[in-house]
Amino acid sequence: MNNLTKDYITIDTNVFVHLFSEQENEDNHIDKLLRKLIEFEQDEKIMLLVDCKGRITREYYSQLQKKLDNEDNTSGRATLLEHWIGSENHHLVAVDFNDGLMGKINKIVPTPPKGKRNTDRILVYVAFKKYRILITNDRKDIIDCGNLIDERRKKLRRIRGSKSGADILTSKEAYAKL
Q: What domains lie within the chain, and their CATH numbers?
């Protein structure tokens, strides 16, 4: 069992949004990834790490509710999405905006534009606080830094160290590890 199929995982909203995108999910790897993670549930199910204050959950619902309402579910994607964003599949993590971990993350993940909410830092925090994997396709704010491919991810990985279990993977990388 690798850290991807352990008890907890963090999934960025963009992965769920890309589930419904023919361009981002042309090979259906996101469907396969999310289904495979459910299949690994044996004695304990794999749960999503979310913050106690509900910021991640609110983002899920604000960006995904229309997709759920409009999906005819012939592909099973709505059911798959409902499984992952349902609160019975969440494990709550307290976020301390003043601790050292958040301070390090704040130096790497950019501040959102004024007036715009951003959960990127919180997603990284809850995954890394529990030494787990964050699956994200956010190349702009979490993985890359402008033209510097993989720059932010490399810096974030150094926070916890390569042997800690904390990591950041794209949905394709995560699927390839299963």
A: 3-177 (3.40.50)
